[in-house]
Design goal:
This protein has a two-stranded antiparallel ribbon with strand order 1-2. The protein has one domain: Up-down Bundle (Growth Hormone, Chain: A), CATH 1.20.1250.20. The chain is mainly α. The protein starts with 8 loop residues before the first helix and ends with a helix. Helices cover 80% and strands 1% of the residues. The protein is globular, with a radius of gyration of 22 Å.
Length: 462
């Protein structure tokens, strides 16, 4: 029996555009916050890294909390959309604050300003917005093909926004006069753009009712109950696929943090900071191309598991090529292998939300309870832990290597560390992700559980 369709083309595009808002925050912050703080404000990379790591201690408590709050929310807008809408207002304010560290203050006050603004952004506002946005994948449709399409549109917008932010920001800051004031102006402009697009995305889709979400093959209906935070946590940790997805998401963000440290690699190793934008094209254009074909490939290869595995095999080969080309000193070869690696990573980005929806279905099939909002806590958890700790680790490694943002020429120890950060660590992370993905056949497990359930029902019912 053919699955019912719930969405029009404009619903999918409207939903996907919400990641313009998300990446106005994430791409700008992850790509440029460290170099802004070290080279413009003059703060220590090591101390900034430590503050970011300390901030993660608080962040860790908020992901599952906001996921559970979404599951318990009942409003005219639904469960997730209110959190997505109002959470972004705080995102806009705190993003501007992070890039508005008062230059006239002492160092201690500057560190405190950054820590408070960064923690509020990541631990509160971005968490509420991002978990709600991701949870909409399972709340506006029950059709798995549409979920894959939503994920593809989402990440097409995400990578397009990242490409734009990474390509134009350095020039934008220079056009605004350079220095701290220019960074503040750019942050305010980005925050306002994000606020507008996020609002449009919220109202582009409508959530299904609890009753419709709980229907199973038209035969029975399960009464939704409000699940407490402690029980939601137990359901999550009992789901092995949730733990795998969390692990992969964190590893991906660590990978992204090392790639974003490429701005130091371009500046000091390749002697051209403008190459950062060129490499951003080599990453994001293949990702976008892969996302366009992901829904078709999922159908052709009869599921997401095979596609994700084959994709990351290509990614590992591509990053190995980047390592070799880096030591050869060939920028064209580095760009070519970077593009190949990104092409392999694309399918997982496109179907990841659909995999999480399948992961939520696994909890329902094994435990009989729905925790859709809480399940999507892995998205925010991964972004914050992986991205935040990745930025912190980058700061620690730079500090350990003897980096000084006020120097035009860095010591040899720093140059060696930049090779490790930009060449070797991304390759190693891709290898680990491939190993984890090899164990993540949640689709196959759900099919087995449904077949087993149907067999038991046939034995009981006349």
């Amino acid at each position: 029996m053919e699955e019912r369709y719930y969405l029009k083309w404009y619903n999918k595009i409207g939903y996907g555009s919400g990641d313009i808002a998300g990446n106005v925050v994430y791409a700008f912050l992850s790509s440029f916050v460290m170099i802004y703080l070290t080279n413009t404000v003059g703060l220590s990379a090591g101390i900034v890294g430590t503050l970011i790591a300390a901030s993660k201690l608080f962040d860790g408590f908020t992901d599952i909390f906001f996921g559970a709050m979404i599951d318990r929310t009942r409003s005219r807008l639904g469960k997730a959309r209110p959190w997505m809408l109002y959470g972004y207002i705080g995102c806009a304010v705190t993003l501007a604050a992070i890039f508005a560290v008062p230059t006239s203050w002492g160092a201690a006050a500057q560190y405190a300003w950054f820590f408070i603004a960064y923690t509020l952004l990541n631990g509160v506002f971005y968490t509420a917005n991002n978990i709600a946005y991701s949870a909409l994948t399972s709340l506006v449709t029950k059709n798995n093909k549409e979920r894959v399409q939503m994920g593809s549109w989402r990440f097409i917008f995400a990578f397009s926004t990242s490409l734009l932010i990474q390509s134009v920001t350095i020039g934008f800051v220079a056009a605004c006069g350079g220095g701290a004031g220019a960074w503040r102006t750019v942050a305010i402009v980005y925050a306002l753009i994000g606020l507008l697009v996020n609002t449009l995305s919220v109202f582009s889709v409508k959530e299904l009712s609890d009753e419709e979400l709980s229907e199973t093959e038209g035969r029975r209906q399960v009464q939704q109950e409000r699940i407490g935070l402690a029980e939601a946590f137990r359901l999550l940790v009992a789901n092995k696929f949730y733990l795998m997805i969390c692990g992969v998401y964190i590893l991906q963000q660590l990978y992204g943090a090392m790639i974003n440290a490429g701005i130091y690699y371009m500046t000091y190793v390749l002697k051209n900071e403008n190459l950062y934008g060129v490499f951003s094209w080599a990453v994001n254009i293949p990702l976008i191309a892969a996302l366009v074909f992901t829904p078709t490939l999922v159908g052709r290869w009869k599921g997401m598991y095979r596609l994700n595995m084959r994709g990351y095999m290509i990614a590992v080969f591509g990053r190995a090529g980047v390592v070799a080309a880096g030591y050869m000193g060939s920028v064209p070869l580095m760009l070519a292998f970077t593009a190949l690696a990104a092409l392999g990573q694309g399918p997982w980005q496109g179907d990841m939300n659909a995999v999480i929806a399948s992961c939520s279905e696994y909890t329902y099939l094994t435990r009989g309870k729905r925790v859709d909002g809480t399940m999507y806590s892995c998205t925010s958890l991964g972004v914050k832990l992986g991205g935040g700790l990745g930025t912190a680790i980058a700061g620690w490694l730079l500090e350990f290597s003897g980096f000084d943002g006020m120097l035009a020429v860095q010591p040899k120890s720093c140059m060696d560390m930049l090779h490790v950060m930009y060449l070797w660590l991304p390759f190693a992370i891709d290898v680990v992700i491939l190993v984890v993905l090899s164990q993540m056949n949640v689709e196959g497990e759900n099919e087995r559980l449904r077949a087993e359930r149907d067999r038991r029902e046939r034995e009981v019912l006349p």
